[in-house]
Amino acid sequence: MPASQRLTVQVWLRPDAARAAASADAVATPGSPEFHRYLSPDAYTARFGPTAAQVGAVMGWLIGRGLTGVQVDGGRDFVSATGPVSAFESAFQVRIGQYQPRDAERGSAGRSPVFTSNDRQVSVPASLAPDVLGVTGLSSASVASGSTVASVAQSPAAGKPAGKSAGKPATCGQYWAQHVHALHPAYRGLTRASLPVCGYSAAQLRAAYGATWRDTGRGQRVALTEDESPTAMFQTLTAYARSNRLPLPKRSQFRQVQAGSACTAPSPARDRAAQSPAVDVEAEMDSEAVYAMAPGADQVMVVGTGCDEDQALLDAASAVLAGDGHRPLASIVSNSWQIPLGDVAPQIVHAIDVRAAAEGVGMYVASGDTPGLTVTDSDPYAVAVGGTTLGVGAARNRVFETGWSDDYGSLDGGRWTDLGVSGGGGGVSDVYRQPTYQKGVVPASMARVRVAKQTVLGRAVPDIAADADPDTGMLTGYTDSDSHGKPGRYRTVASAGTSLATPLVAGLVADAQQGQTLPYGFINPLLYRLAGTRAFHDTLPISTSAPQQNRAVYIAPDDTFTSAGVDVFDVQQRPDTEQVTAKGYDTMTGVGTPNGTAFIAALRRSG
Which stretches make up the Peptidase S53 domain (predicted)? Predict the structure, then answer.
């Protein structure tokens, strides 16, 4: 990296983690004397945060290294500083370089993706080391967020799903199995498969998860953490509501705030995103999915800024918890993003999640769109939301729902090639031991993990799930920008991923909180107490006796896929994934998916 290029980094400070976790456990556990006695942001900082002297020592050291803009955030979680690359290399005893990943695919501009990274672990003075959790902002190696776009942009008019047009065969359906395609030759024993859904409407998703017009999330506030601002979000949300025949949102129901400092330097991570031809509807999908489930709830979209995606998203989450000092910005936070293992110290994520639990804030975190774990979903104080494949029929009936784990076959020259499994994240952490709330619910066979040559029981992921498969995604609306950057036409695209599942669950929890004296906060102890009850749909494996059209999707060739393909549902094959879909708890879908009024009533009784 050029020595003069400027960066902004954050030095994360260590709270009194053990005492903070004990407090978080007490306020989240039914039956505890401290149950639901949440702390304000200021009270949490005073009780568990680093002292003013500790903060001052870190700030003084950074200023002494010639860095500028040195300041502490409102919750005393981190100290930020700005300066040239050379100053940070000297301060942290690292070299910061530009790298290309091995075997990386080239972007639309013909260039391989580039990221920045320090070449070794950072070092700080020994006197400060006990007070520092880690440093963010030196590396841009991760792709931390982004929904899975399942199709190209649809018609700008009315947001109608694409289907059969004159002279052309249908490529998707408006409901599950509207169109079925014969497979020649057969793939994995299947001779026919349905076409994917063009994108479910709000009405279809509401019916699948039992949302009602009695409980709409009225009086609740959901925060959406993002790393980029959408175009004209309130205008887009209004158009989405109109096209889905939902009540139109009031101006007071949506606001957008910024967290962190704007990026002023070129960013390889941002350059890489700009090369992608896909439509980025992450923020729009988050807002619309919450609105589909909870049209009466307020939303606050917190956009983290900066040159580093991970840092921007952590900024956004921290800003929600700091709030105005007296209360956090929201009691429910939908975090539709994931940070890969190794990109950020797990202690940083853990400190954020523990603070959230102590303040009565539920942190709903996407389990990721690839098998395995992430830093963000494996924390025991996060509500990890996994993914499912959901079939909604012509009468808005639930045809089936299973774990999102698709085996993709590509047809070329009359022969199928198996290209492996894709799906939602999950598994067992080798960092965190099995939390108390999972004992007796998660089978030991699904919780075992090898740590230091010993087999122990670890924290299993996910906790709960909802629709995430791109073959059964949501029709998402977005607003184009014209050549001058002004809002243009309303368009739609089918999108999915656990980035969809997370706000769907968050919206249903907002429905359950309606009319309650206190928010549920960290909800996992409640969820696991309800495991095996009618509160959840138990997402089961796809049986070989199920109709073939419910076991796979045929994907017609298009501009994205030049060859025909097929996704076979609920396939777990090693070494692609160690996850399974099973009766009861499983590492694809957790305790299951929300079951409408039964889910809401059970939370109210237990909480």
Answer: 199-606
Strand order in the sheet with 565-568: 180-187, 190-194, 552-555, 565-568, 405-412, 415-423
Do residues 305 and 312 lie in contact, with contact meaning Cβ atoms separated by under 8 Å? yes
- Judged by DSSP in three states, 44 sits in helix
| Cβ neighbours for 166, distance < 8 A, ≥ 6 positions apart | none
Average pLDDT over residues 309-336: 95
Helix, strand, coil in percent for the chain, rounding step 5: 25, 30, 45
pTM beyond cutoff 0.70 = yes
Q: Is 212 exposed, middle or buried (0-12, 13-18, 19+ CB in 10 A)?
A: exposed
Name the token pair of 399: 């045809």
CB 572 within 8 A of CB 422: no
> Average per-residue pLDDT in the chain?
90
Segment 526-558, tens digit of pLDDT: 999 999 999 999 999 999 899 999 999 999 987
Provide the H-helix boundaries in 490-595. Answer: 498-513, 524-529
Most confident of 260-269, 380-389, 539-548, 570-579: 380-389
Separation between Cα atoms, residue 542 and residue 479, nearest integer Å: 38
Predicted confidence (pLDDT) at residue 143 exceeds the cutoff of 60: no
Give the C-alpha separation, 284 to 254, whole Å.
12
What's the CA gap between 177 and 553, in Å, rounded? 9
Residue 274's region, left for phi above 0, alpha for psi from -120 to 50, else beta, is: alpha
Closest CA relative to residue 567, chosen from 580, 556, 559: 556
Beta-strand pair 132-136/148-149: unpaired
> What does the pLDDT look like over 440-469, one tens digit per residue?
999 999 999 999 889 999 999 999 999 999
Rounded Cα distance, 493 and 156, in Å = 10
Q: What is residue 141's predicted lDDT score, i.e. its pLDDT?
A: 56
